[in-house]
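Notebook p. 47: complex prediction with LLZGTKA7.
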Amino acid sequence: MIIVALDFDSAEKALNLVDTVKEYTPYFKVGLELFSRCGTSIVKEISDRSCKVFLDLKYHDIPNTVKSAAKVAIEAGVWMYNIHALGGYEFMKSVAEFNREYAEKIGVKPPLLIAVTVLTSLSNEDLRLVGIESDVDAEVLRLAELAKKAGLDGVVCSAKEVRKIKENLGEDFITVTPGIRPSWAAKNDQKRVVTPRDAVKLGTDYMVIGRPITRAPSPAEATKRILDEINSLEV
Ligand SMILES: O=c1ccn([C@@H]2O[C@H](COP(=O)(O)O)[C@@H](O)[C@H]2O)c(=O)[nH]1
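Predicted complex, structure tokens below:
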């Protein structure tokens, strides 16, 4: 499944893109730029088009502050949102409990809650520079284990780490993987990249794809090309 990252500076640009590619995928990601510009109205406008919103604000703060922000995401009706696993076990556990309890209180289905492990723009060398001695693979698995124990639904990681996560934590534990790059697209600032075809082979649940689609001369053709490459796996 493809989640298209709507990294735009206006609702108009984002909604044009949604209208152009929603026949290929109903999943869209609203991140820091678009949410800072538009707030929850953009979530409503995308949901009104029968599409699902992954709110990618990567909450990382003390539990009380994040629970207050999570209220906004739950009330807005997002399908999925995320927090940083580095916020810690107690933090993740209390947000997961709050997610279920608050959704029940206001009478909605709890959104999926997932944890960011190690950003796909980071490599082993980058971890060393911030004092983390373990390799990315080991760090991702450790944080994913903690997220599962805390009651989260899944993690954000690179598709490179999906097999290890599924083998250790089960096929049902959701993996959401940015850093997806078709062979014909630029890597940009992503370091742990995987092609869409390989990501599917590795068992990713949701691929997050931004610039290869949104900055393509024809976003619809780029999405179709990616889907054709994935579907050619089945022949
Ligand atoms: O580890 C992470 C977590 C989130 N992202 C976000 O995904 C998209 C990727 O966009 P591309 O244009 O395909 O690179 C972007 O919105 C990031 O904020 C990530 O890349 N890595």
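Notes: The chain is about 45% helix and 15% strand. The chain has one domain: 2-234.
Next step: compare against the earlier run before touching the bench.
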